[in-house]
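Reviewers of the previous submission asked for a worked example of the structure-prediction workflow described in the proposal, so we include one complete record here. The input consisted solely of the amino acid sequence. No template or homolog information was supplied to the procedure at any stage.
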Amino acid sequence: MALQSFITMMSQLLGPEAGKVLITKQNGEVIITNDGWTLINFLTSTSPVARIVTQACSVHTKVYGGGCKSFMLMVNAGLEYLSGNTELACHIPSNRIKVISALNWFQAAVLGSDRFEQELANLTAISTELNNENYKAVETVISNVVRTCFAGKFSNNATVVLSDLTTKLIWKICGNVVSNLRKMIAILLQNFDDFVVEAPGQLLVQSALVKGILIDREVKNFIHSSNCQNVLVLNLDDS
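From that input alone, the workflow returned the following structure tokens.
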């Protein structure tokens, strides 16, 4: 459903032929021909992070005033934190993770929000460990953190979905090696960084990437290019 929402969004931006595209790097190297969704399908099927990112793209269609960049900052900050936590990275139980470690991760993920401390005691009181039994309770606390940190940036529905994604991301770490998650993000960045999409009968679309993965719903006019007088930019930044 998330992938279909993403395809629908792209079709609305680029027209019904948006899926039939030629994706190249700026140097002309061809990445994908004919079926532009192949890349998205590949990333979605091979990467848990890509699935989360694709879902976030869908969420962003409901968001006014940005938020996707902030979400990726949360993901990246969390992975950066975990990469420096040897004990957590090397000894992750298959079905649980110590609450304090998850708290530290989430605190880093929301970039040190002072409001996080208000929820710290609540989450610590739930249990000493994250497990299936207290999933909903932890989810509620995370939802409160997300709502507080991103107040005014998201519709209620989008905030609910983002909270769910964040909770699942924490849970996903329990069953995945951190280095693999970081590798998948690197693959995403490599594949999406610096590409041009040309849809038959449509305007040339050049990505304005900010270490980019998430495509903004707003399409802006851009300067004249050597390939096409009318150029559209998909803005990936929320600032």
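The longest strand covers residues 204-208. We consider this example representative of the routine output the project will generate in years two and three.
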